[in-house]
Amino acid sequence: MKEFRNSPAGFPSRRAGTAAALAALAPSLLFGSAAFLTWFNARAAWLVVPSALGAPYGPPPLRAFPIGGGPWPLFLADLLAVAVLAAAAGALTARAVRRRPRAGRVRTALSAWGAFALGTALAGVPRGAALAAVMGLGPLGWAAYAAGGAVAGVVWGAALGWVCAAATAAAHRPEPSPDR
């Protein structure tokens, strides 16, 4: 970790983008665990209600196999969604640091938080569309479920974006301002 944190200052956007992308995988790994989901759903069962209406639950889960023998198309859509989430969080955070290399840790952390929220919204689109495809809905159903997945993704991203923000703030070292 020290080598990553103390890397040359010439690449602050790469450092912040990588930190955001790796941190975006943490909630996905957590929500991919059956033990965590059992514990979490027992304590916050009210969060499951939107998924009863078809909205994707939580950030996209990262796991090796579908839980409970679920359909493989949904599992593959979740894996695609994890890749979209990590790529979007990393790319958007790196872009924010490239545009403002002298920004402080707080501003960079808030950029990572927003990038994570947007990434979960983008990741919710294939998850919702895959659910509509498995249910055999038509194009209107695909669009409605994809939009519902995007809305659910924004909500979960806003709630869990602090993980990405904290990791990015820890890894970011702003460029020094030039002497006047």
UniProtKB/TrEMBL annotation:
Give TM regions: 72-94, 106-125, 145-171
Keyword Transmembrane helix assigned to the entry: answer is yes
Keywords, alphabetical: Membrane, Transmembrane, Transmembrane helix
> What's the protein here called?
Uncharacterized protein
Source organism per UniProt: Nocardiopsis suaedae
